[in-house]
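From the shared-data thread, chain only:
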Amino acid sequence: MFETYKDHDAQAVKDEIHYNLRKENIFRRMISPHFLMRQFQMTYTTDEIKEIIKNTPFAHNFAVEKTILGRFPAWLRIRLSR
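Structure, as tokens:
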């Protein structure tokens, strides 16, 4: 599964948001960054996600790795196995 995380490089994410929105209309270029950054701030840190997983049946069989989706360097790939 994939999840955004709070402790990402905020400047890198902002740069990619502006890059991805470069062809959109002015209204969308002004409003979208605000809502995207809010969403990224309403997530957990990488350590918090690991702690949550440790309290589940997957505590001994999981992997969390940082990845890039849609040019946004603010995603974690979470692999759970039994």
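The chain has one domain: 2-80.
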